[in-house]
Amino acid sequence: MAKKPVQFHLNGEEKAAFVDDGQNLLELLRRGVGDLTPKYGCGQGTCGACTVMIDGKPHLSCITLAETVGGRKVETVGGLGHAGGLHPLQEAFMRNFAAQCGYCTPGMLMAAKALLDRNPRPTREEVVEAISGNICRCTGYEAIINSVLEAAGGQGAMAGRG
Amino acid sequence: MAMHRGKGFAAINYPIGMNLGGDPSQALVHSNPDGKFMVALSSIDLGQGMKSVTRQIAAETLGVPVEDVYVDTADSDTGPHCMGSFASRGTHRVGNAVIQAAKEARAVMLEAAAEELEVNADDLVTDGKGNIHVRGAPSRSITTAEASMAAQFKQGKTVSGRGIFLIPLSEVDPETGEMTPVSCFAHAALVVELEVDDETGEVKVIEINSAYEVGRALNPKLVEQQLIGGAWMGMSHALWETTEPYYPNRDHGPEDFNSYVMPGPGDIAPHNIAVLERPAPDGPFGGKGPGEMCANPVLPAVANAIYNAVGVRVDELPITPEKILRGIRANGGARPQIRR
């Protein structure tokens, strides 16, 4: 099988790798360039754990062809923040205990970041819509929704909690 | 055709842990020369907060800051034995083992400090901030790091401790049939309010109100979040989830997340929780554990609420719109029950 060279930006850094025909972006990120922050969940685009941003929009990396990111900007949780300098979304997730096992969290964060980047003051309904492709098995979603609203400036946070 | 409101109630007494041949868990605690403590467990944190809670328990018992304690739950090949993370047993069984191990390690740490300070170990206290000092004389002090360093490099001591907590096998009394399978129970009562559409059979959960008695809530935020998440799972099991096909033919069974149906973030309902704390005498700092019962009472409460709303008693899970509609049809229409 022919390998193709792909050059892209990952969290602001230039990356280059050879990819196989049909290889998906998640494999390129995890095995090809060693960014383990996007998670492999279902492998068929239904759980959202592998969500990354490509040119500012959320994409399911497990069903995105690796070769299609040539020349484009890919963002993962790996570039979102670091200890001592967390993104407001990460801080809000921590404050609200919005992660339990944590497996869905990288995908949730990227889906939420894509929302806030294009819509800094979303309504609760818009947050629900933005993360509706991301499955969480532990939290019951409430803490996640509240965290995104809180990171966006507190509007509507805790609206669903009596 | 109308929407019908219904309210359903369920209560639960939930036994902590199990007893099928004895129920032991072990913990090992040791300090490194820098005074940081490692707690080795084989109990896995599945996201319920075991690591956080055992870390708190170890820090409290050792008398050191929580930042100075690490919990390693990584490997059942190399770690001390544990029965596992199930039966809501983690906090109770493992927490007790951690207390025992941490007490033993603390005693060695204080002996090492006593030797350095040239005092009796019985006269030493910890301030929880990384210092050990003579009771009533805070100036006669040594840090936990210095004590651990001295133990290892000067005194040749391991600042370490072993812990095991065992609920022994309870045999059935052949005369009376009596046995004592568990040592403590957690309790909860839960009310679900929902709406049933008698045209489509669809159910919308409006609100959940609950009271949980979990012993002492060792980490209140973790407890609350576990209860909220668990209730979501209970609601999901009551109304959506099954590995069996919704229709008799196996070909219609779910194979993946496309066909295994669960409620999403748009299907959740507000859940108000009152956590009541009745510390358990045999629990670590009084803790029992919310565990599985954060999901359990939701299912009967939903079933009762549906009966209350439309008079249909569904006794097979999940309670799908089809089952509700068949029930309504068999009754000759929706029969809302008395609302309380």
Write the layout of secondary structure elements.
The complex is a heterodimer of chains A (162) and B (340).
Chain A: E1 3-10, E2 13-20, H1 25-32, E3 51-54, E4 57-60, E5 73-75, H2 88-95, H3 105-118, H4 124-130, H5 142-151
Parallel strand pairs in A: 1-5
Antiparallel strand pairs in A: 1-2, 3-4, 3-5
Helix pairs in contact in A: 2-5
Chain B: E1 3-15, E2 23-31, E3 37-40, H1 50-62, E4 69-72, H2 90-117, E5 124-126, E6 131-134, E7 137-143, H3 144-155, E8 160-167, E9 185-197, E10 203-213, H4 220-239, E11 271-276, H5 298-310, H6 321-330
Parallel strand pairs in B: 3-4, 10-11
Antiparallel strand pairs in B: 1-9, 2-3, 2-8, 5-6, 6-7, 9-10
Describe the fold and architecture.
The complex is a heterodimer of chains A (about 160) and B (about 350). Chain A is built from five helices and five strands. With about 160 residues, chain A is an alpha+beta fold. Chain A has two domains: about 5-80, Beta-grasp domain (Ubiquitin-like (UB roll), Roll), CATH 3.10.20; about 90-150, DNA polymerase, domain 1 (Orthogonal Bundle), CATH 1.10.150.120. Chain B has two domains: about 5-15 and about 180-330, Aldehyde oxidase/xanthine dehydrogenase, molybdopterin binding domain (Aldehyde Oxidoreductase, domain 4, 2-Layer Sandwich), CATH 3.30.365; about 25-165, 2-Layer Sandwich (Aldehyde Oxidoreductase, domain 4). Chain B has helices at about 50-60, 90-115, 145-155, 220-240, 300-310, 320-330, and strands at about 5-15, 25-30, 35-40, 70, 125, 130-135, 135-145, 160-165, 185-195, 205-215, 270-275. In chain B, the strands form three sheets. Chain B has a four-stranded mixed β-sheet. A four-stranded mixed β-sheet of chain B has the order 4-3-2-8. In chain B, strands 5-6-7 form a three-stranded antiparallel β-sheet. In chain B, a hairpin with a 5-residue loop joins strand 9 (about 185-195) and strand 10 (about 205-215). The interface between A and B is medium-sized, with 28 and 27 residues.
